[in-house]
């Protein structure tokens, strides 16, 4: 199969993992009712659900310029000075999986916020049913605007009592790329965790620098978690990024799960690999603790 050059490497990995049968998957109606995006493919009936016990959760509006950006947050109840962790979503918008990850981080003691930085197009990405309809929206997002939206998210968290001196970011798929980009942008970032974020951008994208090109500019330690069976992000590319960071004396670690495909942490999709996902989540927690984001 030839790779469509209009597709970014994260999307190639996404589209080539499909469940063999519908057994163990929700009906489309149930998936939508549960808050998942249909374009992400069939939703596993056993998707992880994290409750809100002990948490304050909700929707927020974050001022970005003259506009309001929607976000979802979760933080420990009664804790005013929780460390701040931004959750950078995949291309599927602010749907249930990203909200659940946000709650998981809240349970770890963080003030976690997932901003909906694709909001300007006026399209609710969670209601889009085909990946091909999502791509023009997410691929048109300028990096400068993305980084500015994330800075606004941090400022909002600080205004709500979050401890922005203990700032982290975690991201999945396209959000994994966002982690690398933000680590090169923000000097006060303590640590980042990138799940299968593409190291290289396609040639025809309007983005100035890929994570690989930004290696000399990294300002925070990043943990990269990748799948050895990812059809869109070759292990050789991950190794190149690792080498570039080492040559520039940047702090980064990588863990590659040999059998795991792209999206192995996405417990709502057929790409989910329980062992890799659980280990990667432990690695992410340890990374945030090591660099002073989580205590």
UniProtKB/TrEMBL annotation:
Positions of the Dienelactone hydrolase domain: 69-291
Pfam families associated with the record: DLH
Leader peptide range in chain numbering: none
Gene3D superfamilies assigned to the protein according to its UniProt record, in alphabetical order: alpha/beta hydrolase
UniProt xrefs under InterPro entries: AB_hydrolase_fold, Dienelactn_hydro, Dienelactone_hydrolase-like, TAT_signal
Name by which UniProt lists this protein: Carboxymethylenebutenolidase
Species: Bradyrhizobium canariense
């Amino acid at each position: 199969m030839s790779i469509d050059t209009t597709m970014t490497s994260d999307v190639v990995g996404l589209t080539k993992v499909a469940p063999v049968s519908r057994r163990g998957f929700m009906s489309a109606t149930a998936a939508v009712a549960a808050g998942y995006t249909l374009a992400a493919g069939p939703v596993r009936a056993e998707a992880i659900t994290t409750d809100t016990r002990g948490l304050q959760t909700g929707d927020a509006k974050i001022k970005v310029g003259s506009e309001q950006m929607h976000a979802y947050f979760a933080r420990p109840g009664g804790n005013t000075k929780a460390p701040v962790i931004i959750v950078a979503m995949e291309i599927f918008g602010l749907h249930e999986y990203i909200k659940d990850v946000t709650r998981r981080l809240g349970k770890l003691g963080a003030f976690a916020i997932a901003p909906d930085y694709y909001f300007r197009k006026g399209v609710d990405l969670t209601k889009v049913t085909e990946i091909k309809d999502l791509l023009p929206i997410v691929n048109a997002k300028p990096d400068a605007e993305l980084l500015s939206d994330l800075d606004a998210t941090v400022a909002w968290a600080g205004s709500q009592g979050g401890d922005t001196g203990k700032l982290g970011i975690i991201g999945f798929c396209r959000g994994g790329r966002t982690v690398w980009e933000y680590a090169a942008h923000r000097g006060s970032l303590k640590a980042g965790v990138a799940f299968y974020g593409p190291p290289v951008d396609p040639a025809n994208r309007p983005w100035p620098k890929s994570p690989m090109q930004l290696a000399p500019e990294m300002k925070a330690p990043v943990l990269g978690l990748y799948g050895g069976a990812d059809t869109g992000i070759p292990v050789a590319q991950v190794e190149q990024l690792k080498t570039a960071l080492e040559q520039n004396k940047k702090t980064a670690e990588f863990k590659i799960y040999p059998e795991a495909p792209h999206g192995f942490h996405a417990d709502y999709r057929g790409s989910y690999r329980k062992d890799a996902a659980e280990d990667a989540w432990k690695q992410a927690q340890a990374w945030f603790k090591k660099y002073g984001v989580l205590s």
